[in-house]
Structures are given as C-alpha cells and as structure tokens.
Amino acid sequence: MEWKVRAIRGATTVSENSVVAIRDAVHELLDVLEANNQLDPEEIVSVTFSATRDLDVIFPAAIARERPDWNNVPLLDVQQMYVEGSLPRCIRLLLHLNTKKPQSKIYHTYLRQAKNLRPDLSLSAMPLVSTPVLQSLR
Predict the structure, then answer these.
(1) Backbone angles phi, psi at 96, to 5 degrees
(2) Cα 36 from chain centre
(3) Cα 113 to Cα 6: distance, rounded to the nearest angstrom
(4) Residue 34, H or E segment
(5) In this structure, which CATH number among 3.30.1330.40, 3.30.1360.30, 3.40.50.880, 3.40.50.300 belongs to the domain 4-137?
(6) Which of 13, 41, 66, 111 lies in the 20 to 30 Å Cα band around 84?
(7) Per residue in 5-45, pLDDT tens?
(8) d(Cα 32, Cα 99) in Å, to the nearest integer?
(9) How many DSSP H helices and E strands does the chain contain?
(10) Which residues is 5 bridged to in the sheet?
(11) Full-prediction pTM beyond 0.90?
(12) What is the spatial distance between Cα 13 and Cα 91, in angstroms, rounded to a whole number?
C-alpha cells in the first residue's frame, strides 16, 4: 500500500479551567492516540486543536509541544464554535498524518465526557493496544 494522508479525530473534557486539568487531559488524549495508532511525530502533517470558550488558561498546542519529538509538528489552536447546549470544557483535535495504514486501521479517540459525542468511536467500541495508560481508561 502506498502512503496517504489520513485524519484522526479525538476529543476529551476537563473538570475545570486550569492549566493542570487541561495539561492532564491533553497528555492523556495524545497518549491514547499515539498508542492506538503507533504515531511517529515525523509522519504527522499537522494537528488542529479546538477548545470550547470556557477553556482559556492555556493553549492545548503548547502542551502538545512538551511531548518528545513534537517540537517540529505544526500545531494550531482555535476556539470551538459555541452552540447552546453543547458539551462544556471540551478539547477536540484533528490530526493529519502520512501513513500506509488503511482508513479501517485508524483509531479515533473520545475520552471522558466526550465519549458521548461519538459513542461509536469511544474506547469501549474499539480494540486497544495493551498499555498501562490504556488499561486504566477502560
């Protein structure tokens, strides 16, 4: 199979608008995405994070830049469009990567309260790589 650009979606929520809560949630989300998709930062084309308007103490991209080998990954933060009644304190991401994997082998990740956004793509609906981080999320 030849190389293609694929997209991975993900989302999580935080308990409060604090640097610690946002950092924990972003690292958890990226840990799961990296493990399930065997991500190599060299293959990532770009990552766009969106955050709901109630999260404004730190940029999720600034947290992603703390990760090993992510310093050259193009990252962007945007504010999620507000829709009345939508999920509060939510961080979403759209990650584009170059890969030889077929679309059926791309795993999207929805954690915490964000599982309700796409129950068909939540952790309980997909096979997981066996790691301590992932097992603790089940």
Answers:
(1) -105, 135
(2) 11
(3) 25
(4) helix 19-37
(5) 3.30.1330.40
(6) 111
(7) 999 999 999 999 999 999 999 999 999 999 999 999 999 99
(8) 18
(9) 3, 5
(10) 98
(11) no
(12) 6
